Amino acid sequence: MYELDYKVPKVFNKVTDTVSNLLFKDYREKGYQLNKSRRLLLRQAVQCFLLNAKNGNGKAMAITLDRRHYSKGYILNGKDTGRKVSHRYTRDLVDYLDQSNYIDMVLGKRELEYNAKTNSIIYVDSLPTIIVFKPTMVELIKSIVLKRTPLKNVVVLRDKQAMPMTFRADTVTRGAMRFLNAFNNFSIDKMVQCKGREYNVQMYKVMNMKLTIGGRTYMKDSIQNLSGEDRSHLMIEGKETARYDYKGFEPSILYSLKGVKLEDDPYDISGGNLSKYDCRILRDIAKQCLLVMLNAESKSQTAYCINSYIKENYNVKDLHEKGLIPSKSIPVGEILLTLELKHKTISDSFYRGTWGELQYIGARIVDGVVETMMQQYDTLVLQVFDECIVDKDFEEELIQAMFDSYANITGFPQNCKIVKEN
After folding, report:
1. Whole-Å CA distances, 373 to 186, 210, 264, 379
2. pLDDT tens digits for range 359-394
3. Dihedral-angle region of residue 219 (phi above 0 means left; psi in -120 to 50 means alpha; beta otherwise)
4. CA distance 13 to 24
């Protein structure tokens, strides 16, 4: 997430001067004169760029060049700070750095798409603009010696276009802010590593259109982007970790809110007309179907998203030749109907875009786990949506905290199933 803010510590001044002066010289050579106010705007664009570069991994970063993102002041925990970064001078900056061999830039694009990993259908940078730092830029970034400080912007509210919005925090949101601030202060000096790389695991929340929709928690250095195998190599304070998650988390929450026991695997639809399909493939597609059924606003939208998922993740011709599916196509309509019949209890949540509210409840459950482990055991828990990662010395305590938080939020612990990941 490219933070459109130019407020930086004094340690940025020297490099800011260096980069700004290069641009001032380039403007003069092209016959352009910048007055004092325009020089300030350019300098602020440079500060913003360097701040994001320093907050990243030092090798590359994503950047937004969409003019709409620059139309408002930087929003900090719902409040407009009035600090506005110039789109024009940001473009001039990255163009200059690209042409002068400081960076490589690959322009992206934006479109509506379904993300299977987060089960969301939003307007996104499907191909974000990527800035890759070349050696000279890498050295400039390294020369900025910055102490790790607590993350300030801990709750972000976005509109349908994924644009930040101002908001007035209610009681629950203020509580979430206190939790996030406490966690960030607690985690700031904890060493979290994976295969030699250190991660800053301070957290922030993203809400969608309302303060009661969404609410998933993300990390400054996102371990959410690591594969499950890589997450198994995470170390907390030099100690090995264990990974646990809730089985069938989202459908189990819906059943629990209705006070109904979920008897079996919510994604298992093998048998009947679908008996000739490989069970693992069928379960994976059924899982994606059920999650999108809760997210999409129509059955046709769901079918479109699932067909896109199948196209991106499976070679149906190859699967047919290997005997894993009985025909050269996968019957999405029949899978959806089978799931509708299997889950009549929660069918009132299908095709109505209820995912955001469900995600909000799930986020509260996992936040409760993290908070309990921090307060009662002085122990750091890393969350990856419904997965919790903890020092192996605290596995039993984590399992109990996961069960208690689920029971506390849903009021129906019978559907709480916790599994250990390899």
Report:
1. 12, 28, 30, 6
2. 999 999 999 999 999 999 999 999 999 999 999 999
3. beta
4. 16
